[in-house]
Amino acid sequence: MSTTTLAVLVPLLPALGAVAGLAAGRRAPGFVRPLAVLPTLTAAVLAVVVAVRQGGRAPLTAATELTPTGNAALPVELALQLDGTAVLVAVLVGTVATCVQLYSTGYLRDDPRYASYAALVSLFTAAMLLVVYSDDLIVLLVGWEVMGICSYFLVGHYWETSAARAASLKAFLVTKLGDVPFLIGILALGSEAGTFRISTIVTRLTSSLADFQLDHPTVIALLLLAGVAGKSAQFPLHTWLPDAMAGPTAVSALIHAATMVAAGVYFVARLLPVFTASAAALVVLALLAAVTMAGSALAALAQDDIKRVLAYSTIGQLGYLAGALAVDNRGAAIFHLLSHGAFKALLFLAAGVLIHAAGTGSLTAMARAGGTARRVPDVYWTLTIGLLALAAVPPFSGFFSKEAVLGAAEHTALDPAAGIPAAAGWIVLVAGLLTAALTAAYATRLWLLACRGEAAVPPAAAPAPAPAGAAAEPAPEPARTSAARTGGSHAVTAPAGSLDAGTPDTEDAAAPEPGATEAVALAAADGTTVPSAEAALDTGRDPGPERGHPHQPPVMTLVLWVLAVPSLAFGLFYDWLPHWLGGGSLGPTLVTSVLATGAAAAGAAVTWAAWRHAVTYGSVDPGPALLGRLHRGAVDGFRVDALYQRAFVTPVQGAARLVRFLDREVVDAYVRGAGTATGWLGRAVRLAQTGNVQTYLSALLAASVVLVLAVVLAGA
């Protein structure tokens, strides 16, 4: 079987598995799990075979016409391009998707909607694989949009909760807001280039013999960047991603690590010559990357929910990818995409086990209950590996891939290539070093709260005897938490009195994460059981090893260790990857390595010191001390959503109310008036129809007399 035929099967198998799994959901539920796992696993194996056969050599292409467009030079083709970048990204997508499907068989084993969930995950995987292999912009757009609709349903999986419904709608609308200019950009690019084939466009732009240039490169690049910003959650269209944590944690791993948010930067990497044709577009991309990196890292440092911390982390790491592309280094961008895909999938799936064990996603609650991760050793070690990779600690994978990005930025800043602005290099370099310190800070904070929380709750000291005759002061109550907001899938807590603290939403609390559901059921059956870490605070009892949901399905922990291997060792292949990614060194440089590692060490040390200071004064979270006045704004993502609410949502809602008023009270008034007048006329005519013949003859005679008189008078 040829390599291109195998490549066709890679996206086709998960798509067929989705159809079969959805059809078997009620008729043959025993086949749902095999139909979810086996096609995706087979596709992952075939993706590896395709990668081995391709071997980083010259791209393999195949195409067949799907439909004409009315212009013979612009047909829509089912075209594949198998180069080193595409085959490696396909291996990542297949591997992570298989891990997610396996993990979900345990994590959602009691979910009544597992069949539809698994089918959507398979379809999601097929759509991303289509984007990865496609060499036609229109076919790529099909996969792009299928991922959007799959994310809508998967984020809203717990549709009983208002948070999940709102998050799914928000994700859909925000990404569609970027997709409109994205579609216009694709049509403009195809029109100017005379083809929708990606390989042909790139060849014409990079070949000195073609003598081809785009007439409006900046306009086209900016239009395409709008869609990329929406899909990859880059500023200013990033706000949907933290709210998308309302879906199951396994879905978050898939979206963040290998599919939807990776699609945007992957698209830029495939069409990088289009963007390098405009220096202005590169500077804009660098600025967006810088703001995204620094802003998301600050926001991550203030979040209490573990999944929202990781969501903002994803936004920031994608900013690194965009920064690498802004300095015209596709190899560094794809290197970090592969590395980030491994350790971010590990972090999300480890977070899912934590939530499963604790019954809450609140880091504060986990810390006050004694550090939930330490009661689940597999999670403790794999979470530590993932966070070390995220913080770019050598020799973990994140160190080498992040250094490739910073090294590329340094090279552009000091010795820019022709057409690449040095300003883009300086912007990415400075923002990248700052974000390296902040990333290490929030990674350290997450680890301390989830893994070392017991140190934050010193044993209660016996109160000193009160002086004779003095009124004894009541003992201070232990710190408690109150529900701050719901993440759709589980309750997120914050310290009482902190920002957004309020009354729990009873509707949202009815459908939390599976771990919380089972823990609450366990508590209902056994009055001695504390259902979660948060409940432990309210009852004053430590969950302990037997509390919460201590027994995790073995498949969940197995997947964590599978992903821990590339998170630990993938970076060591930095000398091997340039052969696949188009050349150029991806090894760490001395200056940026020292600066970035020093910044990360400083960020971790300051966070540790702030945590010890917080512990001393009876708190657990170093975030407020680290951020100071920025903390309140960072909790809410610097109120970007509030700005959009005032600037866009409120005016649109007002315009909608005006249109509704005009439609109901003005347009409908004429319609209702015509109907009313007809009714009145009908009633008047009905009064004349008495059925009395004498009355009819009298009326006829009277009318005749009136007519005769009128004629006579007129003649006179």
UniProtKB/TrEMBL annotation:
| InterPro entries named in the record | NADHpl_OxRdtase_5_subgr (IPR018393), ND/Mrp_TM (IPR001750), NU5C-like (IPR003945), Proton_antipo_N (IPR001516)
UniProt membrane topology term: Multi-pass membrane protein
E.C. number:
1.6.5.-
Q: Where in the cell is it found?
A: Endomembrane system; Membrane
Residue ranges of domain NADH:quinone oxidoreductase/Mrp antiporter transmembrane in the record: 134-409
Enzymatic class: oxidoreductase
User: What biological-process terms (Gene Ontology) are attached?
Assistant: ATP synthesis coupled electron transport; electron transport coupled proton transport
- Pull one GO CC term from this UniProt entry: endomembrane system
Residues crossing the lipid bilayer are: 6-24, 31-52, 84-103, 115-133, 139-159, 180-199, 249-269, 275-302, 347-367, 379-400, 420-443, 555-574, 586-611, 696-715
GO MF annotations for this entry? NADH dehydrogenase (ubiquinone) activity; NADH dehydrogenase activity
Which parts of the sequence belong to the NADH-Ubiquinone oxidoreductase (complex I) chain 5 N-terminal domain? 74-117
Keyword terms of this UniProt record: Membrane, Oxidoreductase, Transmembrane, Transmembrane helix
Q: Where is this region: Disordered?
A: 459-513
Which NCBIfam families is this protein grouped with? NDH_I_L (TIGR01974)
- Extract the PANTHER family matched here: NADH-UBIQUINONE OXIDOREDUCTASE CHAIN 5
**Entry protein name:** NADH-quinone oxidoreductase subunit L
- The organism of origin for this protein: Streptomyces chumphonensis
